[in-house]
């Protein structure tokens, strides 16, 4: 899949909300691409545009979404029916709201099979039990006839993943699938997604506000802020060689349990997407901002063949600025631990 210069807006009572502004990225076969950023940065809206599930007041203003030689940005609802849930599936953030509370989970899985693939009810039940077993739900025969409220949060999320996998998709979009779960259950769900990816050769787009969640999952990471991608690179580029002040802030805000460092937060709030500030949208919160940041949006500067970032600090004439010492020390410790583990 390749997304080029995608822009999405919403008509609201107060004006036009520019939720996504010129986003471009690609997803390779068998790759996990993580899209990270604070709430309201445009991550989920980008995915809704890809799946054609924008609300009625939303629209794609420009750009293309090329998948299998077709531009999804121009698809009708009828055309999306052949793609959504079949070739591209979605795992929702909150499994409790994603499932029908008054329908047994087995029927919710078989429904996906009978509607998408035209299976008979008997074959769909056999396949549903196979899927439930594949995602680690014990005692599948009994669980098949139970309701969502009889499942724990982690088990409900496994049901949602089973539904998403029902049609054997090529791309799985995970929209913050571990946010509503506790840390131990989070780890199990992330491990499950990694195992399913390896077994099925899936391509995954993983949306999250927490860089720590995707540290061991993502092949590449795109960092979004105020509707734009501000830095993109391999997992190593982002975690060991970040260059954008916003990425520095996100990494610094991850709690480090091995030290007694004070918790770090990003000052200020995300901008009003109806009345965006001139220049770089992050400049009012950026202590490293230069004068040009308040006047013009920075272009995407290439750092290496795999790494790019939109910050004026990468301009040849910009002052040399080092990342925060706390983050530099943390990266150095992580690199040393990694080398020791590899030995």
Which structural traits does this protein have?
single chain, 343 residues, alpha/beta, Rossmann fold, 2 domains, eight-stranded mixed beta sheet, four-stranded antiparallel beta sheet, 32% helix, globular
In short:
The protein contains eleven helices and twelve strands. It is of the alpha/beta class and 343 residues long.
Q: Please tell me the overall pLDDT.
A: 91
The coarse silhouette is globular
> Beta fraction of the residues?
15-25%
**What's the Cα radius of gyration?**
21 Å
CATH superfamily of the largest domain: P-loop containing nucleotide triphosphate hydrolases
Largest sheet: 8 strands, mixed
What would you say the CATH architecture of the largest domain is? 3-Layer(aba) Sandwich
CATH topology of the largest domain: Rossmann fold
What is the end-to-end distance? 37 Å
Work out the count of structural domains. 2
Strand order, main sheet: write it out: 6-7-8-3-9-10-12-11
Number of helices: 11
The share of residues in helices is 25-40%
């Amino acid at each position: 899949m390749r997304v080029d210069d995608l822009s999405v807006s919403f008509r609201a009572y107060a004006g036009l909300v520019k939720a996504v502004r010129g986003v471009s990225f690609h997803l390779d076969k068998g790759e996990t691409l993580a899209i990270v950023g604070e709430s309201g940065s445009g991550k989920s809206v980008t995915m809704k545009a890809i799946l054609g599930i924008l609300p009625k007041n939303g629209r794609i203003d420009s750009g293309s979404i090329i998948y299998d030689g077709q531009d999804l940005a121009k698809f009708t609802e009828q055309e999306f029916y052949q793609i959504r849930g079949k070739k591209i599936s979605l795992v929702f953030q909150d499994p409790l709201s994603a499932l029908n509370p008054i329908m047994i989970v087995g029927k919710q899985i078989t429904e996906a099979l009978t509607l998408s693939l035209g299976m008979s009810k008997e074959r769909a039940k056999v396949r549903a039990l196979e899927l439930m077993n594949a995602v680690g739900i014990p005692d599948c025969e009994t669980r098949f006839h139970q309701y969502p409220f009889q499942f724990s949060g982690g088990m409900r999320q496994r049901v949602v993943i089973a539904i998403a996998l029902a049609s054997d998709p090529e791309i799985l979009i995970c929209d913050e699938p571990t946010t509503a779960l506790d840390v131990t259950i989070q780890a199990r769900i992330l491990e499950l997604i990694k195992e399913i990816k390896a077994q099925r050769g899936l391509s995954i787009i993983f949306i999250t506000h927490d860089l720590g969640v995707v540290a061991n999952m993502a092949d590449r990471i795109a960092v979004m802020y105020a509707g734009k991608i501000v830095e993109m690179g391999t997992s190593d580029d982002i975690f060991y060689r970040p260059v954008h002040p916003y990425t520095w802030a996100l990494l610094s805000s991850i709690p480090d349990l091995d030290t007694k460092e004070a918790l770090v937060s990003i000052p200020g709030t995300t901008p009003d997407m109806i009345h965006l500030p001139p220049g770089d949208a992050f400049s009012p919160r950026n202590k490293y901002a230069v004068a040009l940041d308040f006047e013009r949006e920075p272009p995407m500067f290439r750092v290496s063949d795999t790494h790019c970032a939109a910050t004026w600090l990468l301009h040849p004439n910009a002052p040399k600025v080092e990342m925060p010492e706390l983050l530099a020390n943390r990266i150095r410790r992580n690199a040393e631990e990694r080398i020791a583990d590899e030995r």
